[in-house]
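User: Sequence recovery, please. Input:
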């Protein structure tokens, strides 16, 4: 497919999504693995930003290392930890939080010295919960209607799997937000919280840093808002046609199309 218009920038840093870019489920995408191995060998810093709150940064590192990508915790920013940091910026230690999500999200909230409870929470935080129930949603809606702030780790409606797709965290977040008639605060992409954290870690200039993702509504919007050259790779979720969204700077079928990648 190649570029849409302008020439590729000189690439000095990379910020990248994970699901649908580096792997699908438990299956690595070989061209992507080779691309990050190339950048590592050439001393080009990179950081992964994931909307997925069901895995810890340690989980992500282990997975990437098993694929042959040399990374440490400094190379990974998760929506779960970012959500906890955002809550602590706005609320004091010990604030009551109702969590809908995986153990990794609860771990991040607890590690930020916040109290996880169903009783009169000041904050409801929602991530992907594959054990979602009507009762959990009822507690969330009731708390929000009584004044609790609603925070979502991400608005992803679909997630790629090895055999197809599954509903993302955004699916249940939309249901709760619609019922409670509120607009949630989104921590993950398309907002820039994680992108800014990644840029601080790799220390590269925005004009020479790529944002790579497989979703226009989240990855590409976040990259564009943060001022990065934004690259859509079509190995994940099918592209959404929406004229209201900022288009990617480049659309590629494989990371091999990026200059300098072997």
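Assistant: Recovered sequence (262 residues):
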């Amino acid at each position: 497919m190649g570029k849409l218009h302008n020439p590729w920038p000189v690439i000095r840093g990379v910020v990248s999504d994970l699901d649908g870019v580096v792997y699908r489920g438990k299956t690595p995408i070989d061209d992507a693995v080779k691309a990050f191995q190339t950048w590592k060998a050439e001393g080009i810093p990179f950081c992964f930003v994931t909307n997925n709150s069901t895995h810890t940064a340690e989980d992500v590192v282990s997975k990437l290392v098993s694929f042959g990508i040399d990374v440490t915790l400094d190379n990974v920013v998760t929506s779960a930890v970012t959500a906890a940091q955002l809550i602590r910026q706005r609320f004091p230690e010990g604030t009551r939080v109702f969590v809908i999500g995986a153990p990794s999200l609860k771990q991040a909230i607890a590690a930020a010295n916040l109290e996880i409870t169903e009783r009169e929470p000041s904050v409801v935080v929602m991530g992907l919960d594959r054990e979602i129930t009507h009762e959990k949603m009822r507690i969330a809606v009731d708390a929000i209607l009584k004044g609790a702030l609603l925070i979502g780790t991400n608005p992803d409606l679909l997630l790629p799997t090895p055999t197809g797709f599954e509903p993302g965290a955004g699916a249940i977040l939309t249901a709760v937000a619609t019922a409670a008639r509120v607009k949630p605060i989104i921590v993950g992409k398309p907002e820039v919280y994680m992108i800014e954290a990644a840029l601080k870690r790799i220390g590269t200039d925005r004009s020479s840093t790529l944002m790579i993702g497989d979703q226009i509504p989240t990855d590409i919007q976040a990259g564009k808002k943060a001022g990065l050259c934004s690259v859509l790779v079509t190995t994940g979720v099918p592209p959404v046609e929406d004229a209201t969204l900022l288009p990617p700077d480049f659309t590629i079928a494989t990371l091999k199309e990026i200059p300098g990648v072997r």
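Residues 13-51+190-257 form a domain with the Rossmann fold fold (CATH 3.40.50.1000).
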